[in-house]
Design brief:
CATH superfamily of the largest domain: Bordetella uptake gene, domain 1
CATH architecture of the largest domain: 3-Layer(aba) Sandwich
Mean pLDDT: 91
Order of helices and strands: HEHEHEHEEHEHEHEHEEHHEH
Number of domains: 2
Number of strands: 11
Structural class: alpha/beta
Length: about 325
């Protein structure tokens, strides 16, 4: 009987929802550093719902704490008690870029990386009436005159990505900030700027109606949505960039609890229902474990530091 009980326990421990650690015994709070209704908020809620479904008896509560470009909510997450019951949505801007601009009370070193669950791919598009319509003519044109590239705000992710690509490609660009991606998109379609960085989903309808032209995608390989569009990598420029969504926590969580959390996120991302719902929303489901997620953020942080330094935008102590 004792052997049978041990075998049952071993089998149970291999099933989704099973854990050897005595965790959790109360609700897990997930802090979203943006207002309700945005893509980060919606996807974290899907993560929470999936976690509860896969791990019966577990409760995950989503709390919105917007402000400071995501810095306020991210600070609340990384400065929380390190018991595993307070997590955060780990987005590119607040953890890889904002600390270099100054004004945050945390850095990448203060973040425990649980796992990445989705990425938002990026594509550089030519706007209406631009003097180029493919990668090669874009680079040739930039060699003569810096193209005006719109972004959703100075110091934001697509501002950094455009400038980082320019550094990698050895060209100059003139970044034009707008009050959000929709304003930049309107200016692009109207021919008021030469190019912009967009997600494939937000660019697709404009491309289909010949209002934008994809120049290159910021991935290692071509993507299904724009199969004829090259990557910068295949053009000889070692550059990739994507924004992302992951789960972070404060440093200092004990190993058993951290392992539970990391296993839980891996189970969530592998769940077919989760993948289906996220894909329908236009999210590119991608799993990276804690160390791989951290490596991605540190690489982006280094690129952001280099770009902001060149633009004389680094904050104090950077």
């Amino acid at each position: 009987m004792k052997k049978a009980i041990s075998l049952a326990a071993l089998v149970a421990a291999t099933l989704p929802g099973a854990a050897l650690a005595d965790f959790p015994v109360r609700p897990i709070q997930m802090i979203v550093p943006y207002a309700a209704g945005g893509s980060t908020d919606l996807t974290v809620r899907i993560v929470a719902e999936t976690l509860e479904r896969l791990y019966p008896g577990t409760t995950a509560v989503v709390r919105n704490q917007p402000g400071g470009g995501g810095g306020i909510g991210t600070s609340a997450a990384v400065n929380a008690r390190s018991d595993g019951y307070t997590l955060g949505a780990g987005a590119q801007g607040p953890i890889a870029i904002l600390p270099h601009l100054g004004g945050t009370d945390y850095s990448i070193d203060d973040v425990e990386f649980v796992g990445l669950y989705a990425r938002s791919l990026q594509v550089m598009v030519a706007c209406a009436n631009a003097p180029f319509d493919d990668y090669d003519s874009f680079i040739a044109s930039a060699a003569e005159r810096a193209p005006q590239i719109g972004n959703s705000g100075a110091g934001g992710a697509n501002h950094i990505s455009a400038e980082a690509f320019a550094q990698a490609a050895g060209i100059a660009v003139e970044s034009i900030p707008f009050g959000g991606s929709s304003e930049a998109r309107t200016a692009c379609i109207g021919g008021h700027i030469h190019a912009m960085v967009a997600s494939p989903a937000e660019a697709l309808s404009a491309v289909d109606s010949n209002q934008m032209t994809p120049l290159f995608v910021m991935e290692d390989e071509r993507i299904d949505l724009f199969p004829e569009t090259p990557t910068a990598v295949e053009k000889g420029v070692d550059f990739t960039w994507s924004s992302y969504k992951g789960i972070i926590a404060p440093k200092g969580i004990d190993d058993a609890t951290l392992n539970w959390l990391r296993t839980a996120i891996a189970d969530v991302v592998a769940d077919p229902q989760f993948i289906e719902v996220m894909t329908e929303m236009g999210e590119f489901v991608t799993y990276e474990d804690g160390p791989a997620f951290e490596a991605r953020v540190r690489r982006d942080g280094d690129m952001a530091h280099s770009v902001l330094d060149a633009l004389d935008m680094l904050g104090v102590n950077n």
